[in-house]
Amino acid sequence: HCPDACPATLAEMAQVVKELGPDAGKVQVLFVTVDPERDTAQMLQQYVPSFNPAFLGLYGDLDATARAAKEFKVFYQKQPVKDGSYSVDHGAGTFILDREGRLRLYAQYGAGAAAMLHDIRLLLAGA
């Protein structure tokens, strides 16, 4: 349900994976929702792979989402809107982890596909 940051980031990651060519198989993109009340597992199964069939959407209940957000220090908060529903304000960055699950890079929202591609290539090369 995110109107801007999430689809823009997924589109950037799709471009990065495309540009990686044969090395794309060494990268797994995971999208983690911070709005599990609306972003159901079924919805994520359709939405996330629309950017790239290999992308995975991760879903947890409210408690699991809160624990993951705390662990990664990700801000998110519901904001009521006029029609009675809500939007979710949230941090908008990309965490890049190595094969052992260690955080190697945090890419700020809007950094662009070229910058992420450069850094991911360095990580894949073992730099």
Structural summary, described in words:
By secondary structure, this protein is an alpha+beta fold. Helices cover 36% and strands 21% of the residues. The protein has 4 helices and 6 strands. It has helices at residues 5-20, 41-47, 62-72, 113-124, and strands at 30-32, 56-58, 76-80, 86-90, 93-97, 103-108. The strands form 3 sheets. It has a two-stranded parallel sheet with strand order 1-2. The protein has a two-stranded antiparallel ribbon with strand order 3-4. Strands 5-6 form a two-stranded antiparallel ribbon. Strand 5 and strand 6 form a beta hairpin. Helix 1 (5-20) packs across helix 4 (113-124). The longest helix is centred in the N-terminal third of the chain and has 16 residues, at 5-20. The chain starts with a helix and ends with a helix. The mean pLDDT is 94.
